[in-house]
Amino acid sequence: MYWMREKALLISDLHLGKATHFRNHGIPVPHAAGDANWDRLISLLLDFQPQRVLFLGDLFHSDVNSEWTDFCSLTRQFSNLSFELIPGNHDILPVEHYTQARLLLHPPVLEMVPFLLSHLPLETIPGHRYNLCGHLHPGVCLRGAGRQTMRLPCFYFADNQGILPAFGAFTGIAEVEVKPGDRVFVIAEESVLLLER
Known about the structure:
Shape: globular
Radius of gyration: 17 Å
Mean pLDDT: 89
CATH class: Alpha Beta
Largest sheet: 9 strands, mixed
Helix content: 10-25%
Oligomer: single chain
Number of helices: 4
Order of helices and strands: EEHHEHEHEEEEEEEEEE
Strand content: 25-35%
């Protein structure tokens, strides 16, 4: 999600290193699963030219592997940008690794009026704030008249909370229950479409 006023790119659940982590543990995962993340991230940095990149948690999947070195190279390459992390449950690396990657570490909830940015969805949100978060990897299941189904990731916006889709290509989808008044934007390949109910 790009926030024009702040020139900030918001990314949730990138899960860098996940494919490599699985391969290192003997689970065959194609290299393309990780490459897609890099291609999309670099494209967004070049297209939007943000001043800040705010990761809403789960930037890196697990222990350090070769993809962390690649990420450090990327942050050096884009040295004019501020890379910032609101930590998630997978962000378990020692602080010195984040320093090495030029990442500014924030507390679990960052206030940027009118938003409260977090990884985990907040249970209590003050009436004058809107929570933007990740963690859930939201998606919807679309059903056709011929019994065909398709699960797609989505941006999910309720009254006082918006949940961003997982950016990572190898993360899975959790179907959300859409209630009256909610707004859902489905990601279908290169398009983002409002889901009409």
